[in-house]
């Protein structure tokens, strides 16, 4: 049985969380990632649009293992007359999942300003009942209030803030009794699992069963992450969260093998290979289906026309795209299945 280096995995997750990386704002997280790859001693290339492909070694038909490092977030749509910010989502972020979250606003000239996602009006004690009962809507009754003394749109513009500036949510990481709670478990926790696997391969001299690349993508949340594959790739394996729910098999203590998402069934043969690896190595797994609003970076690779097999695995995760929760057991099971599949 392969054993996860829990300390390295959690430390890597925290390092990745410390860098805001709303989809499209990838430069800083890319620089951190290549520093981590240099620490591990792996060669890599950067893609033109943003993304990093590391060569893990091995021989034969190539497998890409992909995890993404972009986060859902917000963007300044326009500046309101009172100096607050009207915002729109970047990726699948809904207002009820980020109310009262602290944020950082990044301007295109390098400024960084803090604030909070708020309802308008924002105090329950002085808000009429019909307004309190209205669902939050980014277009009409939700705004970002800056931690600056601004009273007008001109005051806010004087800070250098404008339409198109990026807004990142504070991750709010915490861990208790093995449970991990944070924004962006999707997918920085899974990227940390992949980094932990790479560390074990390098330090323990493990032999890979085939040629393997690790692809860290930065556009998964908007649907075009892992869409340019190295030559010789025949299979792609996404590591992504497995959302829990009333009709789901996924469990925060287990790894899920994906049978289908909202676009495609996953490849029957490759999925069976993963299932067999889990059974033979006593990995705590379940099979699950994720519809109607879920996909992984396998999907755009198929849509791009690659003749490849595709599969996905990941830890059971609650509250997807909100303040998410998983358990270290789920990360361990994901690691164990990944290692059983790629190592001899």
Structure description:
With 344 residues, the protein is of the alpha/beta class. Helix content is 26%, strand content 28%. The chain has two domains: 6-71 and 184-342, Zn peptidases (Aminopeptidase), CATH 3.40.630; 73-169, Peptidase M42, domain 2 (Elongation Factor Tu (Ef-tu), domain 3). The protein is built from eight helices and 18 strands. The strands form three sheets. Strands 1, 2, 3, 12, 13, 14, 15, 16 and 17 form a nine-stranded mixed β-sheet that branches. The longest helix is centred in the middle third of the chain and has 20 residues, at 185-204.
Order of helices and strands: HHEEEEEEEHEHEEEHEEEEHEHEEH
- Our count of helices gives 8
Rg on CA atoms, Å: 21 Å
CATH domain topology of the largest domain: Aminopeptidase
Q: State the CATH superfamily name of the largest domain.
A: Zn peptidases
Task: Determine and state the CATH class of the largest domain.
Answer: Alpha Beta
Structural class: alpha/beta
* Known CATH architecture of the largest domain: 3-Layer(aba) Sandwich
Show unreliable segments: none
Helix fraction? 25-40%
General form: globular
The separation of the N and C termini measures 12 Å
Number of domains: 2
Largest sheet: 9 strands, mixed
